[in-house]
Write a structure and sequence with these properties.
By secondary structure, this protein is mainly β. It is about 10% helix and about 55% strand. It has one domain: Beta Barrel (Cathepsin D, subunit A, domain 1), CATH 2.40.70. InterPro entries: Peptidase_aspartic_dom_sf (IPR021109).
Length: about 120
């Protein structure tokens, strides 16, 4: 099994001009996206709540969560974002992929558009 990495821009929903490019490991098994907390602070995203997460190693952690806009190849969408701490990976999770109208093709390890249903 291979890894899929993507570069996306992340911005402050209140001021789209405040944005940074971030390299992500795509993790369709992760619900939310994790982004270095220093990057989120730099673009002015503020935490709104604290949630508990079970990490890939089985450890339970608490992290702050805010809302961000994600931009990829002309697509944009808003989604929750976790303030990652030192040692956490920048992960692109399922909620963000869906907000962008995208999914991970697990066989080819590539990002493809999805047909959105209601």
């Amino acid at each position: 099994m291979g890894l899929t990495n993507l570069k996306l821009k992340i911005s402050n929903p209140a001021n789209i001009k405040r944005q940074e490019e971030v390299n992500f490991l795509v993790d369709s098994g992760a619900f939310y996206s994790f982004v270095d907390g220093n990057v989120l602070k730099k673009v002015g995203i503020k935490p709104e709540t604290v949630k508990e997460f079970i990490m890939a190693n089985g450890k339970t952690v608490k992290r702050r969560v805010g809302i961000a806009r994600f931009h990829y190849k002309g697509l944009t969408g808003g989604a929750p974002v976790v303030f990652a701490k030192k040692g956490d990976e920048n992960l692109l999770g399922a909620t963000t992929l869906e907000a962008l109208g995208l999914m991970l093709n697990p066989f080819k390890r590539e990002i493809i558009p999805i047909t959105l249903t209601v």
